[in-house]
Design goal:
The chain is α/β, with parallel strands linked by helices and 363 residues long. The protein is 38% helix and 17% strand. It is built from 12 helices and 14 strands. It has helices at 16-30, 68-81, 125-140, 150-157, 205-213, 232-238, 253-262, 277-284, 295-301, 313-325, 327-341, 347-362; strands at 2-6, 34-40, 50-51, 54-59, 87-91, 108-113, 144-147, 165-166, 192-196, 220-224, 245-246, 265-268, 289-292, 306-308. The strands form 2 sheets. It has an 8-stranded mixed β-sheet, sandwiched between helices. β12, α8 (277-284) and β13 form a beta-alpha-beta unit. α1 crosses α12, α5 packs across α10 and α8 (277-284) packs across α11 (327-341). It is globular and about 60 Å long. The termini are close together.
């Protein structure tokens, strides 16, 4: 099959839809399919023409918060229409408004929802109205729709009688790594709390900093991630850097695996999620996880993690304090989290489901 994907920033970007595109796309290539990723020129170097067997096409965009994704996706949609792609896989609901156009040219389109984007705090009033309306284009414009969480699947199903495919994100089940590269960050292992996500308000890093600053502990707080477009939120977070609060930026590869392998605990204090790939990875490395009580996090964690009230920095502080003083409980949660991660399919099985959906559309 010949497959085109757009709606992502680029590769390698260790977050959200980009991880899904990389993991699934590279496995489709290994199975003999042709995969083209349309990437944004300011995220992926133009010199990078191929990545893990996937062909990369660099297209321009208007690099602002409100117009970056939509302008790039419009150009990507046009390019995909006039390519030899049979399947066009569109990531993120805001881009679903283009899903009808390739169908006029005999292409099959799929929209994959990674979250209810209109809930995100970074968007203004008009952007939220547009994204709310795009929920309807998500379910009516493409040939097929997939969602990564049960809550989102039920939500989209409430908007239409068409079937919605529930295909959760996968997780790589890897072995823990001994501390080595993390020494360059001044870390030894088991001496830090880890947060790893984009620096956007809905991920809740500000709650974690507020809670951490109220606790008397010799452990450090590591916030691995970054913002975009010089966002004031990301800059405000970074201004709070100190000997106890570290900002190593986006990390990936060996360093990221070491951070996940050697944290005392992993915290995801988000207000909004789809199904966090970072959380699943943290669990697969046997981390004790402390997460906000939104439905998507509870769906991922079950009874294998500690829960606090979303948006409540005081409750987060209480739960952090309890875990920092109760080593035995942390050890119990580590075992439970690793077992819970085993419930989720690896990326090979996720690719099986998406590949089967492609074949069904082309049959």
């Amino acid at each position: 099959m010949k497959i085109a994907m757009f709606g992502i920033k680029g590769v390698p970007v260790p977050a959200g839809a980009e991880i899904v595109a990389e993991q699934v796309g590279s496995r489709l290539v290994q199975r003999g399919h042709q995969v083209t990723l349309y990437v944004r020129a300011h995220y992926t170097p133009r010199t990078l023409k191929e990545y893990k067997g996937m062909r990369l096409v660099h297209l321009a965009s208007i690099p602002t918060k409100n117009f970056d994704a939509i302008t790039h996706s419009f150009l990507a949609c046009l390019a995909a229409i006039f390519s030899d792609a049979e399947i066009i896989h569109i990531h993120a609901t805001g881009n679903s408004v283009f899903a009808w156009l390739p169908r006029l040219f005999g292409k099959k389109t799929i929209v994959q929802s990674h979250g209810l984007d209109w809930q995100r705090a970074k968007w203004g009033r008009f952007a939220k109205i547009y994204l709310r309306l795009s929920d309807y284009s998500t379910v009516y414009f493409p040939n097929a729709v997939t969602a990564v969480s049960k809550k989102m699947t039920a939500y989209y199903q409430s908007l239409t009688r068409r079937p919605i495919s529930y295909i959760p994100n996968g997780v790589e089940h890897r072995e823990s790594q001994p501390p080595n590269l993390i020494h360059s960050l001044g870390l030894r292992g088991n001496d830090y709390i880890l947060f790893a996500a984009r620096f956007v308000p809905e991920k809740g890093a500000h709650y974690l900093i507020q809670a951490f600053n109220r606790i008397n502990t010799d452990k450090k707080l590591v916030l691995a991630g970054d913002g975009s477009y010089g966002d004031q939120y990301a800059e405000q977070l970074k201004k709070q850097a100190s000997e106890k609060i570290l900002f190593p930026g986006f990390v990936q590869g060996q360093l990221f695996e070491e951070l996940l392998s050697n944290a005392y605990l992993f915290v995801l204090p988000s207000d909004i999620e789809g199904l966090s790939t970072g959380l699943l990875e943290a669990m697969s490395f046997g981390n004790c996880v402390l997460v906000s009580d939104i439905e998507e996090n509870i769906e991922a964690v079950g009874d294998a993690g500690c829960i606090f009230e979303a948006g409540n920095a005081h409750d987060l502080m209480l739960k952090l304090s309890d875990l920092l003083t109760n080593v035995d409980r942390v050890k119990q949660y580590r075992t439970l989290a690793k077992e819970r991660a085993g419930v989720y399919d690896d990326w090979d099985k996720v690719t099986d489901e998406i590949e089967a959906l492609y074949r069904k559309l082309l049959a």
